[in-house]
Amino acid sequence: MAAFQGKSVLVLGGSRGIGAAIVRRFAAEGAAVTFTYAGSRDAAARLASETGSTAVQTDSADRDAVIARVRDSGPLDVLVVNSGFAVFGDALEQDPDEIDRLFRVNIHAPYHASVEAARRMPEGGRIIVIGSVNGDRMPVPGMASYALSKSALQGLARGLARDFGPRGITINIVQPGPIDTDANPEDGPMRDLMHSFMAIKRHGRPEEVAGMVAWLAGPEAGFVTGAMHTIDGAFGA
Ligand code: NDP
């Protein structure tokens, strides 16, 4: 398959988990892929060598570095913003600096990267941000900052779709439920609780999320924008 032959793709946060599956999918379909990472230098180097992609270290918490990375990537056909994390625990006990860092990575980076990418994207450009079903449903305590950050992406997509639509650029949010990654391993302590909310009682696989991202980036999705696309085994239903 070479559906993305000749296309330039940047994945923010691509060294592990869902991001790595997205890198593999686009690379397998012929795209020239660059991806960023924060700390996992070895994992990033292995993935780059396996897929023929390019790995660059860029902390998504650093606004100016994110903007420079997008700008220096040249005209992109596809931008995927995947980097993101959760801080768990009692909101009354949490370190405000850590919460602000979460907002920088999970909200500010998607906004600034999307705007910077749209400056140079050709018509037909695609922006896809990885949100979460927790933007719709937060059934447990201790994750308010994460839920807030993923809900914010819904407004980002709805608003920027209006700005970018006349230029032929789409922007969409993919909202996974529990996906088996380092951040949320299926054999972790929350497994039974999470599965109790779901109709399909298993964690999703990163490759399943990458499949939805590839469809949104492809030619069949040109009329799809400003929308949330949930892939969650009915966690949020
Ligand atoms: P992982 O923790 O397994 O991987 C996160 C990836 O993002 C890594 O490549 C990591 O780089 C990168 N990253 C994290 N912080 C930064 C940063 N500051 N700068 C640059 N890169 C960064 O997470 P998942 O694959 O599980 O999650 C990916 C996305 O999917 C996140 O946005 C998450 O919120 C979302 N999501 C995940 C779900 C799940 O159940 N797994 C469910 C719903 C949404 P490095 O390797 O260098 O640390």
From TrEMBL:
Which Pfam families does this UniProt record tie to the protein? adh_short_C2
The record ties this protein, via CDD domains, to: SDR_c (cd05233)
Recorded hits in SMART domains, A to Z, give: PKS_KR
**What top-level branch of life does the organism fall under?**
Bacteria
Which residue intervals define the domain Ketoreductase in the entry? 7-182
PANTHER family reported for this sequence? DEHYDROGENASE/REDUCTASE (SDR FAMILY) MEMBER 4, DEHYDROGENASE_REDUCTASE 4
> What family classification does the UniProt entry report for this protein?
Belongs to the short-chain dehydrogenases/reductases (SDR) family.
* Name assigned to this protein: Oxidoreductase
The species is Skermanella stibiiresistens SB22
From which lineage does this chain's organism come? Answer: Bacteria, Pseudomonadati, Pseudomonadota, Alphaproteobacteria, Rhodospirillales
